[in-house]
Amino acid sequence: IHTARALGLKVMLGCMVESAILSTAAAHLSPLVDWADLDGPFLVAQDPFAGMHYAGGKIVLPDGPGLGVVEKAVAA
């Protein structure tokens, strides 16, 4: 990001298909970029983790320690 900014470039942060762990980690960097496309967890049918989410079209980071990601309870 620093190198791109030094060169006058815009920065996009994106993902494809991954759990909430990676998307939440990326979301922590999102204030530093121009565009954030972090919808990967929406494409995971059974993501075992809960982390960042969207509210009103904005990324909301979890409040917990570290990345704030937690393991979802497994239904029996």
Strand order of the largest sheet: 1-2
**In this structure, how is the largest beta sheet organized?**
2 strands, parallel
Mean pLDDT across all amino acids: 90
Structural class: alpha+beta
| Uncertain residue ranges | none
Count of alpha and pi helical runs: 2
What is the CA-based Rg, rounded? 14 Å
Throw out a few tags for this protein.
alpha+beta, 6 strands
Question: Could you describe the 3D structure shown?
Answer:
This protein is an alpha+beta fold. Helices cover 20% and strands 21% of the residues. Strands 1-2 form a two-stranded parallel sheet. The chain has a two-stranded antiparallel ribbon with strand order 3-6. A two-stranded antiparallel sheet has the order 4-5. β1 (12-14), α2 (20-29) and β2 (35-37) form a beta-alpha-beta unit. The longest helix has 10 residues, at 20-29. The radius of gyration is 14 Å and the shape is elongated. The chain starts with a helix and ends in a 5-residue tail after the last strand.
Layout of secondary structure:
Blueprint: H1 2-6, E1 12-14, H2 20-29, E2 35-37, E3 49-50, E4 53-55, E5 58-60, E6 70-71
Parallel strand pairs: 1-2
Antiparallel strand pairs: 3-6, 4-5
Short description:
The protein has 76 residues and is an alpha+beta fold. Helix content is 20%, strand content 21%. The chain has helices at 2-6, 20-29, and strands at 12-14, 35-37, 49-50, 53-55, 58-60, 70-71.
